[in-house]
Amino acid sequence: MKAVGLFKHLPISDPESLVDLELPIPQPSGRDLLVRVDAVSVNPVDTKIRAAKGTIESSPRILGWDAAGVVERVGPGVTLFQKGDAVYYAGDLSRPGSNSQYQLVDERIVAHKPVSLDVAQAAAVPLVAITAYESLFERLGIDRSGAEHGRTILIIGGAGGVGSMGIQLAKLAGLTVLATASRPESAAWAKSLGAVHVLDHTKPMRPQIEHAGWSFIDYIADFNDTDAHWDAMADLIKPQGKLCTIVDNRGSLKQELLKAKSITHAWEFIFTRAKYQTEDMIEQHRLLARIAQWFDEGMLRMIMREKLTPINAANLRLAHSKIESGSMIGKMVLEGW
Q1: Average pLDDT over all residues of the chain
Q2: C-alpha to C-alpha distances, 299 to 165, 221, 271, nearest whole angstrom
Q3: Is pLDDT at 54 greater than 80 in this prediction?
Q4: Is 207 exposed, middle or buried (0-12, 13-18, 19+ CB in 10 A)?
Q5: Which residues contact 216 (CB under 8 A, 6 or more apart)?
Q6: How far apart are CA 142 and CA 82, in angstroms?
Q7: Burial class (CB in 10 A: 0-12, 13-18, 19+), 27
Q8: 272-281: long-range contacts (C-beta < 8 A, 24 or more apart)?
Q9: Is the dihedral of CA 140, 270, 35, 295 positive or negative?
Q10: For residue 99, what are the CA distances in angstroms to 85, 113, 305?
Q11: 236: CB partners within 8 A, 6+ apart
């Protein structure tokens, strides 16, 4: 099968940073699905794992943690799917990724593809939908049926992939959504998704929040840069409020800034359930099924903004470059081999 992978962790400008490969088709066992991958999307996690480290892999490392395709074979323990099912998923960080024609993935983190989305549009969704959903409804404890209607949430990094889903999900839950973006085009995108006010996160945020009519924010979801926004989040969060972060911190975070307000800080990591094979691992299957239903009912808007064809090393290098530039709005997808 065709695949794209790496042996050396290099800058994306190096042609050997991602290379075209021919690999054997893997065989499913247990609860595995063998999926024919028809489209993939690229996320910051891909670029972080690929980045220059001075290490050499003994076998090719296959990246990619977003895919949509068709089930070709199933393992003996599979009960949720059958051959021919159209599916979408984000996968498992500890297993070979989706940048290959065929991939093995545990059925408990897979769902049927939204009928209303084509395969490329569907591939843009899983990782960011899971991250945003778990951040809001599991880590921050927001009731998705609207029990916190009218409360405020600030989504930092509102125009990125996770932010694009986060704004929509928070709006569905009845929250008043504020978001951040640093360029006119990204601010316009965040507003089009449901943000009632957009701040520039490259400038002091308190004056902007107060100018918009708020003193404190009930919830904050930081999908951008934990270190850069820590002090501002501690200042803006309401006493006894909750904040969630997804980006690794580079330095120490001043926890004492949260103590006086009795703030709850939660981390969200999409791969926790798969990595530790948690008892509730199937919740990601249910989550993605619910997201698919919301798309099919017209409650969510497609977030794919760019598409490249075909899936190969050259196009994946282009996609990684765009992600690393920090200028990505929504999601970029690659389709076809």
Answers
A1: 96
A2: 12, 21, 26
A3: no
A4: exposed
A5: 236, 237, 238, 239, 241
A6: 34
A7: exposed
A8: 273/109, 274/91, 274/92, 274/93, 274/94, 274/106, 274/109, 275/92, 275/93, 275/94, 281/106, 281/108, 281/109
A9: positive
A10: 20, 18, 20
A11: 154, 205, 206, 209, 216, 217, 220
Domains of the chain: 2-124+277-335 (3.90.180.10), 129-267 (3.40.50.720)
Q: What is the dihedral of CA 297, 299, 305, 309, to 10 degrees?
A: -20
Specify the pTM: 0.97
pLDDT at 53: 83
> With the C-alpha atoms ordered 76, 80, 84, 85, is the resulting torsion angle positive or negative?
negative
Nearest to 49 by CA among 35, 65, 68: 65
Q: Output the six-digit token pair for 183.
A: 């360029």
Average pLDDT over residues 233-255: 97
- Write the pLDDT tens digit of every residue in 176-214: 999 999 999 999 999 999 999 999 999 999 999 999 999
- Strands 331-335, 304-308: pairing is parallel
Distance (Å, whole) CA 9 – CA 161: 24
Closest C-alpha among 291, 316, 300, 332 to residue 112: 291
Q: Is the confidence at residue 55, as pLDDT, over 90?
A: no
Q: Could you give the angle at the alpha carbon of 108 between the alpha carbons of 48 and 129, nearest 5°?
A: 50
Rounded Cα distance between 163 and 148, Å, is: 20
Task: Enter the tokens of residue 230.
Answer: 């820590």
Longest distance between any two alpha carbons in the chain, whole Å? 60
Q: Give the long-range contacts of residues 265-271, CB within 8 A, separation 24 or more.
A: 266/135, 266/139, 266/140, 266/242, 267/139, 268/131, 268/134, 268/135, 268/138, 268/139, 268/244, 270/90, 270/127, 270/130, 270/131, 270/134, 271/65, 271/92, 271/93, 271/94
Q: What are the tokens at 91?
A: 């996968």
Tokens of 333: 């997808």
